[in-house]
Amino acid sequence: MRHLFSVITLRSARPLCSPPLRGLLIGALVSLSVPSLAPLPSRAASASQGLVARLEQALNAPDHAGLEALLAPAQREQLAPRLRRFAQRFANARWRLSVGDRLPDGRLPVAVSVSGTTEKDGLLFSLEASQQLAISTEAGLISGQELLQDQSLLVNARGSLPVTLLIPDAVLTGSRYDVDVVLDEPLGQAMVAGGLTSLTSDQVHEQRSPDIQLEPMGGGGLFKSVQAPFQPGVQTWAAMLVHPDGVITVTKQVRVVNDRSQL
Q1: Residue 131, beta-bridge partner list
Q2: Phi, psi angles (nearest 5°) of residue 197
Q3: What confidence tens digit (pLDDT) does each residue in 221-248 have?
Q4: Confidence category of residue 16, pLDDT binned at 50, 70, 90
Q5: Taking a C-beta distance cutoff of 8 angstroms, is the pair 200, 162 a contact?
Q6: Rounded to an integer, what distance in angstroms lies between the CA atom of residue 124 and that of residue 114?
């Protein structure tokens, strides 16, 4: 299980990027959509909608006023430091949350998206991120969470630099699959450099920055074939593309399952 508001920073041989996000984060600069979720008809569903609506309001409020009143004590201790660090980097972030029908185990599925900008060393970075969470509640408070899907994209560019992410949400144990970050516009004579690295669970949990080794890329993006582990769990990838017009940084969590019905 991972927690909201954790942050991963990425480094390369050049000081190019500010951190993309993990935790209650999400998305893509290419207008990646958050799945629409059906309305909840029952009284309990209305209470769930109300809780998530108040969470969204608190996340978008100055100093996140009212957030602690929605969290169980253990969640407050875990989330408050992460949220503060995130807010320092993306003070203008805007959050959007939507909730679906309770899962069979009683947890709430919540789709989250966040967008924002930050400046570092005179450069402006734009973040788009999306996540699917399963949230546990107790006595009307958020008592736990599990990250089901996670994707974030951070772009620093002089102008529009649209990309498409072709990375699966879930794969079978031991299978090979593609991790592709595709530049949507022709490169012409331009050259790009890129790199991909997997993040360990310790790097994700402790918010440590991985080194991404860059190498020349051809074909209009980064195209890698990777292998899933032979045990169920998650793989988390960090990718970087350096383009003459800017820098693109991606993080993506891929679920590794041993049952095709879970894909």
Answers
A1: 112, 150
A2: -145, 150
A3: 999 999 999 999 999 999 999 998 899 9
A4: very low
A5: no
A6: 17
Pull the structure tokens for residue 257: 């399952």
What is the signed CA dihedral for 96, 102, 107, 108, rounded to 10 degrees? 10
237 and 167 in contact (C-beta within 8 Å)? yes
Here the tokens at position 167 are 């990375």
Closest to 166 measured CA to CA, from 180, 183, 155, 152: 180
CA atoms within 13 A on the CB side of 57: 9
Q: What is the pLDDT of residues 108-142, one digit of tens each?
A: 999 999 999 998 888 889 999 999 999 999 999 99
Fold of the domain built from segment(s) 43-262: Immunoglobulin-like (2.60.40)
Distance of CA 89 to the CA centre of its chain: 15
Domain boundaries, the chain: 43-262
